Amino acid sequence: MISALKIKQTGSRFWVDRISTTWMLAGLFFILVVPFAIFLGLLIKALPLLYDQSLWAILSGTEWSPMRGNFGFLPFIVGSVLVTVLAVCFSAPTSLMAAIYITQFAPKRFLKLVHPVIDILAGIPSVIYGVWGVLTIIPLVAGLASWFGISSTGYSILAGGIVLAVMSTPYVLNMLIEVFRSMPIGLKEASLSLGSTYWECIKHVLLRKGLSGILAAFALGVSNALGNTIAVLMVVGNRVQFPSNVFEAGYPIPALIANNYGEMMSIPLYDSALMFAALLLFVMVTFFNFASRYFIQKYEV
Amino acid sequence: MNRKSLEEQFFRRLTQLTTVLLFVVLTWIIATILYRGIPAMSWDMITKVPQGGFYFGKEGGVLNAIIGSFYLAGGATLCAIFVSLPVALFMNIHLVKYQSFLTRIRLLLDILWGVPAIVYGAFGFTLMLYFGLRASLLAGIITVAIMICPIMIRAMDEVLRTIPRGLMEASYSLGSTRTETAFKIYARKALPGLTTAVLLALGKGIGDAAAVLFTAGFTDYIPENLLQPTATLPLSIFFQLSSPIEAVRERAYAAAIILTVIILLFSLTGRGISTLYKKYSANGND
Amino acid sequence: MVMTETPIIRIRDLNVHAPDNHILKNIHLDIPKNKITVLLGPSGCGKTTLLKSLNRLTDLYPELKIKGNIYIDDDDILHPERDVSQIRQKMGLLSQRPYPLPMSIFKNVAYGLKLKGITKKDEVERRVQEYLKKAALWDEVKDRLHSSAEQLSIGQQQRLCLARGLAVNPEVILADEPTSALDPVSTQMIEHQFQELKEEYTIVLVTHMLRQARRLADYVVFIYYGKIIEHGPVNEVLDNPKEELTKKYVSAGV
User: Fold this and answer.
1) Could you tell me the fold of the domain covering C1-90+170-254?
2) C-alpha distance from A265 to closest chain B C-alpha (Å)
3) B133: which of A183, A234, B128, C252 fits an S-S bond (Cβ 3.0–4.6 Å)?
4) From the CA of C110, how many Å to the nearest CA of chain B?
5) What keywords were assigned to this record (chain C) (predicted)?
């Protein structure tokens, strides 16, 4: 009786194990398939456009007039790259400095105080940052432009860059703080005992030791900025053109997709072009992420 | 003062100033939203759906968007848990022998984490067309679930990774199967961390607008079943903000406060759980 | 105890407090020149804190409160106005685990020289070679001076750290259980180096290993829970302890 019970129990335990393992495997399989599914799904939808025009013509074309079947993506690619570069130029140095101050110079209590604040800010949705951008950055940029003698509505590449920078800073900062915190204190002791000042220790030792982590944090900032939709869309102006200065409007790829999905079914090839835009964005961000990983691993000190 | 200590002083000040500047800007954001939003805040905002004339500045609220966001993010999070928890456990129990394979999975998940929400949105749209769905709560849930899965798996994975290997060996040596080790030992031990991971994904699901732009549609009503379209808070803010009427825009700021408060509640809960967890599991080495 | 030699470091009324712990209590100690002084005691008795106070690395632990005076060549290192980085260069540190700086082997040794403002290429090269030889590492690394220091074995890393410390031309070497992470062969090499180095340097060595103390020490300071129980020449303290606690520790002998 007892042994029968035991066998039965082992039997059910065995089956539970089998079923749950299968379930786990299925989940893993599902998640591994997602990136390929995204790529293929978008590619299939983009095919009509690719049959119609050569890839090179699409990527290097400068004219965007869906009604006439012209789908040149270059202005959008340029727009995306410009806002991203601006954003990283603003956020990378500021977050690095702040991370250094918070982890190296400030009293320990300060980190405990700001850590939750940073976490919370990292969680604030991008639409909120967009609202803030419209309310404060737009007039500021317009003012700055007129100070330079340029007339601008404020809705511009620069505004997009600033809003993106502010938005991605909490993420980047959080990661940088982790990088500096995970450094062994013995390394600092070693440098200081050789007679370095704190700053020399940071400059020669900590920045070097943390280089791969720091670059990874910046890369996160870049991919955040490249893909952000709503916040940029709200402040960047959305005009198909090559901006000649940062006070002019631009039109990044995500904004293109979000702005036009409503009418995409009513114009031939338009839906295909927007799906191509999504595919392009996917490829750009993924390529960037792979490349930065590879680069970081290769040059890891 | 010599050159060295001058340099030291200079950079100390510089980094300090940068930090101050950063936090001024970040508080400025919250202040701006509060300043503009509070006057437009009313009880109606959170208890009523848009009435006739809402988009001309008349009566109503954004209850449709609040409830819609909860339905959508809640549903998506539930779906994502069913995939993420097993996968994260699988990675840390069954696959723990295959480190190089694990590294590749983690890389892939990180890459997926980096894929922009709008791309998930467009992908969700292609899925929707393929399955003959229309923009609906269901389509939105599926899209957001796919989007937050990598986040949840990676966050759970990071928690599970910290569990010492010895625990697994102990569990095996008592005769547990891998499943029992996974769900009875690992999942239980890591429960607070896992909850934080879920809340992180939930917050992301609520806050994101781009993924649901194509797939969830928009409506002034609270959806009654999965196949109806649904409003979400971020989109509601976005649409109201593009209105030419001042009163409508004011209410967008109020809706922004609501969204911020919801997100704050989630992240504070998550933080609270993880500090509690740290307090009770600290072993003095930290 | 009567010290015939002139002390190089004088510690007066040193007290170190952690928030809930009085780590060092009224430490009063002279450390003689060109000798190996061993700080001996069980783990967690405050030896490491005492060592780190000597070059004010305690600054890195804001929770520690330090009172008292530590003089090296009549400079009070604990004086808040002192330029610590210069005083620290009078002391080289060897920690429990080697921490090679994230740069090449050559640059690790040259780092201290750079901080001192020595940048002439041939001068730097000459010195790097000299100190690597002193640390008995030169022959093993001379063909790969420009590869990363982190690729060395842990024993080699510790000797690199020794060379790095010597390169700033210190008077004192502070060693905090420098062999605890090393294999027996590397341990022997480090200990052998210490015997040779005491001709030119003063060495303060923290250890909890009685045998190591016996092998190396000229003077022994026995510390127990933040207090100096007994100190003096090695044969007095280890072979003829006066205090009950020291007797117990020595007879439990490792």
Assistant:
1) Rossmann fold (3.40.50)
2) 12
3) B128
4) 18
5) ATP-binding, Nucleotide-binding, Phosphate transport, Transport
